[in-house]
Amino acid sequence: MIDFELLDRDGLARRGRFTTPHGMVETPALLPVVHPDPARQPVAPEEMRTRLGITAVITSAYITWRTPPLRTVAEKEGIHGLIRFDGPVMTDSGAFQQHAYGSVEVTPEEILSFQNTIGSDIATVLDVFTEPEDSHEKTEAALAATSERSHASRAARPGLLAVPVQGGSHPDLRALSARTASELGDVLAVGGVVPLMEQYRFPELVRVLVATRPNLSPARVLHLFGTGHPMTFALAALFGVDLFDSSAYHKFARRGSLMFPDGTVPLDDLRENTCHCFLCAETPLTEVARLPPDERERRVAFHNLLISVEEIGRVRQAIRDGTLWELAERRTAAHPALRAGLREAMANPAVFLPTEPDSRRAFREVVAESTGRPVAVRFRHAVDAYRVGRAGARRVPRFPLRPEYLRYLPATDRSDQPIEWEVLTPFGPVPVELTDLYPVGPYLGLEEFLSRPHHLSPAAFGKAVAESTDGGVDLERDWTPAWDGRQVARLLEWRYGRAVAPRVAEGLRGERSRRTGRLRAMVRDGQPQFVVGTDGVPRPTFRGATWLHTLLDLGRERVVVHEDAIPFVREGRSLFSMFVVQADPALVPGASALLVDERDSFLAAGRLVLAPHEMARLRRGVAVRVTAHARSPAPEPEE
Questions:
Q1: N vs C: which end of the chain shows fewer Cβ within 10 Å?
Q2: Hey, is 8 helix, strand or coil?
């Protein structure tokens, strides 16, 4: 089976790698479609590798099989020799030709055997293609045939196998196909969606992915057939698509169209040299338009491929940076159909939430839908749960949580009863003590630059508070110490629950940054027990985690370590997925956790890379990065 290793993630999106007989593939990866006849291929595969850094391609085993001269060369020199490419080659089986022309001359067994013979790095099952409009009955019959073929192909295939995921527009069949493919395939290839993309039916495409994605094994590589235009890459990557195949670079070139991440431009309409990539620096686009037809087509195809490769690079970088939602929002703004697809994705947060990180570096608003991202939905639900059992809150203008402001904000009335205060944020009303938390604290959007209500001076803020009170509070008192204590207690309640938070908070005092005024640490007896980052989340030090371990119920907030990895975890080494025994299913990537052995002895604290449901299924890669262990240096709180 495939040895996929996850390296970085941003929710479902993954930067990873897997090996093939002809080298490693780093994902997300673009696999350009290469015609098996070199005379019909506008950009030579060798040039793709040397000039564009493309590491893998896809070509048609069926066209090779049915064309005697090509078949002879492939059987003698292998598919790599035929197309003159020395990196990983995936081969398609002819399913689309079968759909387009009604039949193919080859059987599923023959085409699989042929792919074995010619040395395909990733062979593909000859599945039965179904249209989105096909009935449930017709689609179910086709799916049964595909399943039977997939089982036979798995038995006959010693190497990596791509198993198509079909099911048309029927969610139950998509889910069934996904589960079957996950048992048999190394690459799970979502098919039957090309008509949706060609007709710009992106909400329907998203519904297919919504039905499919939760049922796919995270240990497999996900391929979305036909995702060839760069403006679609970021949206598809949100669903964890690892491989993209593109024949669009050539199809668009044949009709004289240039592809860009924000759309398509007819070459003949250009009067300005709007692109300055290295190819257009050699020959400006206005000159390419005047070249002979064959050379013009070749240059446009190369340009389209270059733009596609660059966009895949942006997607990978966005995954590293945790900004893929922002990139997807910028790209979907290029076309209303893509925007509609994004809205459909946001209408299904449950697909994303198990792997959505607990926080990111920042929350940047890009479009009106930005505050509908799954992580924002989760935050609003958590705020609703936090409010339960608390008295109605008073509203206060948004302001920085700095001491010079907090001193004016009464925390209790004259009867020493807590006063609950909330501020209106782009995510709805939020209790004051939680407004440093992601996504509110690091939010950057229109509100920051329009009304700017939180830029009141401390004195003006104090006046506004005084006007909103009824005389039942002491306005002369400095309330900063009270707010320090409340924020410590309430943040721990937010993270660990109302039942255990008071014991966790015993003896803790808050320390604020001199520069920003934000809470930066929770200290007991001069020793930090929790540090608070720019996301506002309290994360335990080794001392704090040791204390937490004694207070939290067995299994809660824990990742159980196999005995073979215990010495390494104690020394601060990362915990690899193959050494995870079990994990608290409530944890999410990025969350802090207690690492314990099978007898529940505390070992170290760490932050999750994988979601709990992924840990037992991925054989390679880091599951938890250790952040605090017995010999780790004292943490440096963020300023």
A1: C
A2: strand
Which residues are CB-contacts of 185 (< 8 A; sequence separation ≥ 6)? 125, 150, 154, 161, 162, 163, 220
Q: Is residue 410 part of a domain?
A: yes
Is the per-residue pLDDT at 199 higher than 80? yes
The pLDDT > 90 percentage for the chain reads: 84
Query: Are 216 and 293 within one domain?
Result: yes
Residue 606 makes CB contacts below 8 A (sequence gap 6+) with 559, 574, 575, 592, 593, 595, 624, 625, 626, 627, 628
436 catalytically annotated: no
Position 473 scores a pLDDT of 83
Number of H helices, E strands in the chain: 24, 28
* Rg, the chain, Cα only: 28
Residue whose tokens read 């002369």 = 476
At 314, list the tokens. 């942006």
- Residue 401 and residue 512: Cα distance in Å, rounded? 10
- Report the candidate in 274, 332, 272 with the shortest Cα–Cα distance to residue 307: 274
Pair 235, 163 in one domain: yes
Distance CA(82)–CA(170), nearest Å, equals 39
Q: Which two tokens stand for residue 582?
A: 């079990």
- Higher pLDDT among residues 102 and 631, named by residue: 631
Of the candidates 179, 187, 140, the one whose C-alpha atom is nearest the C-alpha of residue 163 is 187
| Alpha carbon distance 205, 224 (integer Å) | 11
Q: Does 201 share its domain with 291?
A: yes
Is the bond preceding 28 in cis, omega lying within 30 degrees of 0? yes
Q: CA 602 to CA 594: how far, in whole Å?
A: 7
Q: What is the pLDDT of residues 469-479, one digit of tens each?
A: 877 788 889 99
pLDDT tens, 422-458? 999 999 999 999 999 999 999 999 877 776 655 688 8
> Mind listing the pLDDT tens digit for each residue in 508-562?
999 999 888 899 999 999 999 999 999 999 999 999 999 999 999 999 999 999 9
Give residue-wise pLDDT tens across range 167-186: 999 999 999 999 999 999 99
- Pick the catalytic residue from 10, 37, 92, 121: 92
Q: What pLDDT is recorded for position 636?
A: 60
Q: Which residues of 450-479 are buried (b: 16+ CB within 10 A; e: fewer)?
A: eeeebebebeebbeebeeeeeeebeeeeeb
634 pLDDT above the threshold of 70: no
Nearest to 131 by CA among 157, 164, 169, 101: 169
Q: Which of 92, 97, 89, 130 is nearest to 111 (CA)?
A: 92
pLDDT averaged over every residue in the chain: 94
The domain in which residue 191 lies consists of: 5-351
